[in-house]
Amino acid sequence: MTVILVISVFFTIMTNIFVKKLFVMTPRKEIGKQLQQERKAQKMSQTEAAEKIKSNRQTISAIERGVYLGSIATFERYLMLFGYSLAITKTKMPTFEELDDLFPMED
């Protein structure tokens, strides 16, 4: 039982490290940056954007910085404001053999 728990914890930690290393700029940050560019191209303030999606400026700021952890519905309304939609993509988890390449041992 202890061995299974240790392996599970190790895999969880390695997965979290893999995700952080793989996405230096996370998809949320990339999306946020693109949305910010769209908003600015339309000469719209964060406050104006927030009013259009029935939210607040702080939420718009969090989305554009890639740190938003609120509802998907609000996020989706902001995407739709600029003609985008929400979609998911299945990503491949690394194999144990690939972990060595992803995380070389540091001396």
User: Number of DSSP strands?
Assistant: 0
What fold name stands as the CATH topology of the domain at 27-95? 434 Repressor (Amino-terminal Domain)
The percentage helix is: 55-70%
Q: What CATH architecture of the domain at 27-95 would you give?
A: Orthogonal Bundle
Let me know the CATH homologous superfamily of the domain at 27-95: lambda repressor-like DNA-binding domains
How many angstroms does the end-to-end distance come to? 33 Å
Radius of gyration over C-alpha positions, nearest whole angstrom: 19 Å
* Approximate shape: elongated
> What structural class is derived from the secondary structure elements?
mainly alpha
- Runs in which pLDDT lies below 50 for 5 or more consecutive residues are 13-24
Q: How do the helices and strands follow one another from N- to C-terminus?
A: HHHHHH
β-strand amount = under 5%
How many helical stretches? Answer: 6
Q: For the report, how would you describe the main beta sheet?
A: none
GO molecular function, one term: DNA binding
Transmembrane segments: 6-24
Organism: Idiomarina zobellii
InterPro entries: Cro/C1-type_HTH, Lambda_DNA-bd_dom_sf
